[in-house]
Amino acid sequence: MMYFLTKIRTHMVKLKASSKHKFNPKVLGALALRTSKIPMVKFMFTVGVLTLLAKVFGFYKEMVIASEIGLSELLDTYYIALLIPGFLQTVFIGSLNNLFIPNYITELSTSNKKGEFQTVSFIMITILVAILTLLCLVFSAYFLEMVFPGHPLAYYELIRSQLYIILPSLLFWGYSGMFGGLLEINNKFFFSSLSPILISITFLVCLFAFRAELGNMVLAVGTLAGAIVTFLFQLFFVVRKKILEFAKPVINPNIRLMMGQLPPKISSGLLTGLNSFVDQFFAAQLVVGSIAAINYGTKIPAFVVGIIIMVIGAVLLPHFSRMVNTDLQKAYKQLFRILKIVFFGALIATLFAYLFSNQIIELLFERKEFKAEDTLVVARIQQIAILYVPFYLCTLVCVRFLTAINKNKFMAWTSFWNLGLNLVLNIILMQYYGVYGLVASTTVVYIIASFVYVGFTYKQFKALKAAK
Description:
Blueprint: H1 2-20, H2 25-37, H3 40-68, H4 73-109, H5 114-142, H6 144-147, H7 153-166, H8 169-185, H9 189-193, H10 195-209, H11 211-214, H12 218-240, H13 253-283, H14 290-297, H15 299-324, H16 328-355, H17 357-365, H18 372-386, H19 389-404, H20 408-433, H21 435-467
Helix pairs in contact: 3-10, 3-15, 4-5, 4-7, 4-8, 4-13, 4-15, 5-7, 5-8, 7-12, 8-12, 10-12, 13-20, 13-21, 14-18, 15-19, 16-18, 16-19, 17-18, 18-21, 19-21, 20-21
């Protein structure tokens, strides 16, 4: 009993001392190690449940849109108006928000100028959004008819009208991404993961309650309203949890490092995002229905990857960012354990989906205009696509880790070579296997990329051990 009382007294003394030196790096290191002992399963379960709910709400939203709007000109123009802002948000703003987490955690462990770091990050987001907004306006004014030719003037005016309403969403998306990062850093995953559900609910409220008043602008307004509600929701909690701080903006070494990593991170995201455009470009040259077949055939793999990577990605980036600032070698070892669990767990699900691919497609899609012969084509595409899932998930886990240690230049170059390889394989395999060749090309690229990412990460680990 005396032994345990002594241990408790010693622990209380340490806590007391740590309160006097709240942001001492050693204290932060101890905090990070204690945090790593908190079961990540709890956080992953929270994110997983909310992500699944978000997917369900998102799917329901798409069903409602199809039912209420149908395959109409309004829906076509809405998706075109959303395409460019959505792509820019994912590539540019998403890259900045991903870099914010590891560099902010580094800031906490060094100079701890939280207010300065957050203020400079806000300014960077604002400037970036202003530039992206200007690019969208230039595109809509001068290049819209060139990229989407062959439509009447009213069609383009409808796109522009909706685009002008959607554009302010870029700013709210940017700020919400930073707020979400702050919440994740502080292990408030419930509040950060709830945002996609709020977006769908807000959109549905606009569609059901205000369609008569908003007319053709209802979808665009619903998108903007969802962005605003998410921004206000996350702002409320970062203020309530006393996470948000402002100070005079100063560009310190950590900010400078984040700025230096932004161009390669954006390049990596841009080149990766272009792969889907390349596939659709080649698919458009095949028989009618090839694009739709690819979209249906990759829905299940994309759904599985989307949920799993949201679950582990939201938790792992802040977790790895803490660990690399305290015990980098231990962080590598934990990464490799996670990779084994992810790979073999996904492999079991992949084998199941491969064996029952026909039954899955038949159950989900075969009705009305979707015939039995369509099921055979889509199921075969799904069997090819599902093979990349275990490898692609390992790549995405490595991406989170490499982002935490600021290896974004490597990822940019790898994305460049992946895009080139996909282009070459598309040209070759499409000639022999048609639409199946395009999907096989993507699968081969993802598998090769996985070996490259894991190999590079392991090489960094060996170099670290040799240095010690």
